[in-house]
Structures are given as C-alpha cells and as structure tokens.
Amino acid sequence: MTRLVTQSAPPQDDSTSEVTNPWPALWALVIGFFMILVDLTIVTVATPTIIEDLDASVNDVVWVTSAYMLAYAVPVLITGRLGDRFGSKNLYLAGLTVFTLASLWCGLTTTVEALIVARIVQGFGASMMTPQTMAIITRIFPPAQRGSAMAVWGATAGVAMVVGPILGGVLTDGLGWEWIFFVNIPVGIVAFAMAWRRVPALPTHAHSFDWLGVALSGAAMFLLCFGIQEGHQEDWAGWIVAMITAGAVLLAIFILWQRLNRAEPLVPLSLFKDRNFSVSTVAIACMGSIAAAFGFPLMLYAQAVRGYSPTEAALLMVPMAVMSIFLARPIGRLTDRLHPRLITGFGFAVSLFGFLLLLWRLQPDVAVWELGVAMGVVGVGNACIWAPTAATANRNLPMSLAGAGAGVYNATRQVGSVLGAAAIAVLMDSRLAHYLPGAAAHGDAGADKIADPHAAALFSNAMQDALWLPASMYAVGLVAVLFYEAPKHAGFGGAPVAAPAAGIKE
Q1: Superkingdom of the source (predicted)?
Q2: Is the dihedral of CA 48, 49, 52, 54 positive or negative?
C-alpha cells in the first residue's frame, strides 16, 4: 500500500525539487566513479610485469585485484546506509580521499604483500563512494529523466571495464607499473574539487544499523572467496573445504537473519519483490565476474605467447572500448523507451557470440584482426548491457530505499567480481599445471615471450580453457534477463509523463 506524502512532509525521501539542473552533479560523480572502476581492471595488463618485478606468482598478483574487490564488496552494503544517515556527499568525499591516498601507497610499495594491503585500503575507499553515486542520482533526477541519467552511470561502468587495461598498458610501458596507481592522484584531486562544488548536500535521516548483518556477510564473503582462490594452491585440503563450507553456512544464516530482523535489515528483502530489480542483480553479478575474470587470461596470452608489450597487449581491448563508447549514447536514449528484455537480451547474446569467437581463435599464430573483430562484437553486446541494467534496477524503487537499493546492486556486482577473480585464478593455475607443470608459479607466466612453439601452444590452450568461465557467465546473464517484465515508468509505451510528487513512501 502506498500513500502520498504532502508538501509539508520532511524532504528526506525525495530531493528532485532542490536541484534545478542535476546534470553537472552527475558528471562530477562520474569522474570519481570511473576512476574506481578503472582500478578493477587496470592491474590485469600489468600482471606479467608485477610478477617479474616483485618476484610473485600468478595467484599472488590475482590477489592484488581480489583484495581490492573484496574490500570493495564487503562494506558496500553498510556504506549505502551510512550515506543516508550522514550525507551521501560527505561519504563520497571521504571515500574519495581514502582512495586517492591509498593509490599513492600502492605506487610506493616494493613487495606484493604490501601492495595487497594497500589495495585493501583502496577498496574500502571505493566502497564508500560507489553507493553514494547511485543513490544521489536516484534522488536528484526526476522520474522522467532518471533512466537517461542511470544510463550514463551504467555506461561508465562498461567503458571503465575496457579502458582500464588500455590505460594500464600505456602507463606500464611508458612509466612503470607503479603509475597505474599514481595516475589516480591528480584525477582524485580534480574529482574532489568538482564534487565539492557541484554535488548537493541532500537531506539525511536516521537509520538503525544491522551490525550483525555486516559481520555475517563480511565473514561469509571472505571465507568463500579466500577458500575458492586458494583451493587449487592448497590441493583442496580439508581446511580449505571447511572454510568454503563455513562461508556457505554463514551466508545462509545472513539471509535468514535479514528475514527475521524486524528493525532495519542490512538487505531489505522487500527489494527483491520487484522482479526487475532481482533480475538486474543477477545480470550485474554476471557482468562483474566477467569484468574481473577475462582480462587475466587474455593479457597473459598476449604477452607470454605473442610477445606483446603491455601497451600492445592492451590495444587488443581497443575495439571493445570503441564500440562501448560509440554506442553508449544511442543505447542510453533507448533505455527509457524499449523493453529491457529486448536490449539486454540482445546484448548478452551478441557478447556471448563474440566471446565464443574469441575462444575459438585464441591460438599463437592467429591474425590479430581476427581477435579485434571478436573483441568488437563483445563491445557491441556490452554496450547493450551495462546502462540498461543499471537503469532498470532502480527504476521502480521508492526513494526511501534508494540507499539500500544502490548498496545491494553495487554489492552484487562486486560479489560477482570477487568470485570471478577468485575462480579465474583457480582455472588458470589448474590449466597451466595441466599443460605446463611449473608455469603457474613463475617463469612461463612472466613478461617474457615463451620461445618454444610447443609450449606457446600449450599456454594458449590453458588460457582458452580459463576463458570458458566468463563465457558461461554471459550465458547465465542471457537466461536471467529473459525474465524482465515490462516497465511501468512514465514515458514507456506511450504512458504520460507526470509531474513528480513531493515524495512517495511505501
């Protein structure tokens, strides 16, 4: 049952009337959001160089990314609520400060262990920022413009996914791998100044925080992800199996607690009564796992098998990036008018086709244009996924659940990323151990080209096998988005665009 809140009610759930032109605030937020998402993938192309410079293993360097994503994913549920309580702008600026300082720390480290610790701090800063961006956009844009605004936000995630490796390659080749982190410092300063000036300070309201839910979800995620990633290294010892089992049990207890908590659960399960929100969380979890997973095998193949420099390897991503950027605007325009099943279903199907083409042709002597075509096809599909999924996820949610919805959506994407990175590490290690025993540890996975043609072919086979993981995620996402229902927002299917009410509560 819904009821209209009169104009005299406190403006804690809707702030559209306070911002006459919300677009400058959106662009200010996009800069910081783009930066933290680039850092999800920027390390992938520098992986061989970091392995060599820091005398690390493939699994160690994958943890450089996994640690960031884990620290990003675990707190993001509670940071969304903290933004509602203490101000989304305040949390965003605080997180941006932590992220920027941690980036400096990352660049100054000299051991892989120290780099992992610094990345944990960096990920925590990112977790403070991300839900604020989505919640602020939801609150400052009127319903008739919210789809277009969220399309920009979602497209930013898709573009960042492919720009990260390209930027990482250029910086690693030109200045050294440390600069993939140092570059965040000037960008962070500019993003802080713009957000300080252009993002409004929205009304806040009290929350009761579900600290038990935070503890349960954090422990479950750590046990599951650490157990999955280290399982192959430890030959699936009893304590690894126990860790994964304990994580699964804690996750079940967390879900049960969210159902029983009558105060204010960390994850209001009522969110999932909206079918489109539920479908969107599945779709974005798949995309998170793909974004985190596919870069590692591809970049290792390009540098170890083909002998590419980091920049040359990153250029394999250019067709994907070009198509994602070129199509972002027209797809954004369609988001408010077309059924989300049509757009995202087409996107997942095309991306899956492109990825299967890439898998088929990933051989030592394949022409580079063939890889480029496959990546371009994947880029076309991705452009039809990121923005429409983000726009559809929160379209029907009331303003009172803006922070919670943003937190759950972003946490879901990050959970997918963490599990994707953990699983790809297992697959790469196991397939390298199968084809080239000893290559998973050092040497053959480093920055130098594999001279032996037979070994190069086996290495390619190992990377092909690992890439079946992201391919399967595209297939899962395709099935999920077929369950989208027709939206009911203003403007869709000829529905009239009504003036926004002062606020809507459930």
Answers
A1: Bacteria
A2: negative
The lowest-confidence range among 56-60, 116-120, 184-188, 250-254 is 56-60
Q: Average pLDDT in the 178-203 region?
A: 91
**What is the C-alpha separation between 368 and 361, in angstroms, rounded?**
10
3 exposed, middle or buried (CB, 10 Å; 0-12, 13-18, 19+)?
Answer: exposed
Helix residue ranges, H only, 111-178: 112-140, 143-174
Please state the domain extents for the chain.
21-199+211-491
- Predicted local distance difference test score (pLDDT) of residue 19: 62
137-141, 226-230, 486-490 — which is least confidently predicted? 486-490
Give the helix/strand (H/E) hosting 298: helix 295-300
The CATH number given to 21-199+211-491 is: 1.20.1250.20
SS3 for 336-371 is: CCCCHHHHHHHHHHHHHHHHHHHHHHCCCCCCHHHH
CA distance 222 to 215: 11
User: pLDDT at residue 505 above 80?
Assistant: no
Q: Which helix (H) or strand (E) holds 401?
A: none
Q: Rounded CA gap, 165 and 39, in Å?
A: 9
- What are 121's two structure tokens? 């701090």
Sequence length of the chain is 506
First-last CA distance in the chain: 6
Alpha carbons 128 and 36: distance in angstroms, whole number: 11
93-107, 327-341, 402-416, range with greatest mean pLDDT? 93-107
Retrieve residue 463's tokens.
Answer: 């990377």
Q: For 336-364, how does the pLDDT look when each residue is reduced to its tens digit (9 = 90+)?
A: 778 889 999 999 999 999 999 999 988 89
Mean pLDDT of 412-423: 82
What tokens were used for 35? 């930066």
At 3 the three-state DSSP class reads: strand
| 506 pLDDT higher than 70 | no
Q: How far is CA 242 from CA 199, 215, 246, in A?
A: 47, 19, 6
When pLDDT is averaged across residues 182-187 and rounded to a whole number, the result is 93
On whether the CB atoms of residues 201 and 116 are closer than 8 A, the answer is: no
Per the structure block, which two tokens stand in for 497? 């665009």
Q: Token pair of 88, please?
A: 């989304």
Q: Which residue has the tokens 């170890």?
A: 304
Residues 347, 327: Cα–Cα separation, whole Å = 12
CA–CA distance, 462 with 324 (Å, rounded to integer): 28
**Cα separation, 425 vs 226, whole angstroms:** 11
The predicted structure's pLDDT at residue 483 = 95
Spatial contact of 435 and 458, defined as CB atoms under 8 Å apart:
yes
Neighbour count for residue 435 (Cβ, 10 Å) = 19
pTM greater than 0.70 (yes/no): yes
User: How do strand 3-4 and strand 504-505 relate by DSSP bridges?
Assistant: antiparallel
